[in-house]
Design brief:
The protein has one domain (29-133): Lipocalin, CATH 2.40.128. The radius of gyration is 19 Å and the shape is elongated. By secondary structure, it is of the alpha+beta class. Helix content is 17%, strand content 51%. Strands 1-3-4-6-7-8-9-10 form an eight-stranded antiparallel beta barrel.
Length: 134
């Protein structure tokens, strides 16, 4: 069986194109995003939604910084911890201990200027995070 050189070159160019496009999509997250909304809902209870609570910055080396502050029922929450992040098909994972945001999120909307993610806290609370690119 003979393999044609043009066939191999075509496959190699196709592979390079796919890898290049995949890396461009991953780079969409790099930059500073405003946390437009953070919502917490527990079944059978009224949800809590806070808006414009700070920023999350994703760096190209898969590290990042959060500057988040909000109040719920007279309790103040602040999150300025750094984190590492990874993105795979349909999921974003933020890692950095002690943060309510450090977990794997399901990507609901993945647009150039808006992101919507959902996750749980392990205790039946569904959380939604809405980000807008600065």
């Amino acid at each position: 069986m003979q393999i044609r050189k043009s066939s191999v070159v075509g496959w190699a160019l196709g592979l390079v194109l796919v890898v290049t496009l995949a890396s461009c999509v991953g780079d969409r997250l790099v930059g500073t995003w405003e946390v437009a909304a953070f919502e917490m809902q527990r079944p059978g209870q009224q949800g809590v939604r806070v808006q414009n609570i700070g920023t999350i910055t994703f760096d190209s080396d898969q590290t990042g910084e959060k500057e988040i502050q909000y109040s719920v029922l007279d309790q103040n929450f602040t999150d300025t911890l750094s984190f590492t992040w990874s993105k795979s098909e349909g999921f974003i994972t933020l890692e950095g201990g002690g943060s309510e945001f450090a977990k794997t999120w399901i990507v609901v909307d993945d647009e150039r200027t808006t992101q919507r993610w959902r996750s749980t806290d392990g205790m039946n609370t569904v959380q939604m995070l809405e980000l807008r690119k600065r």
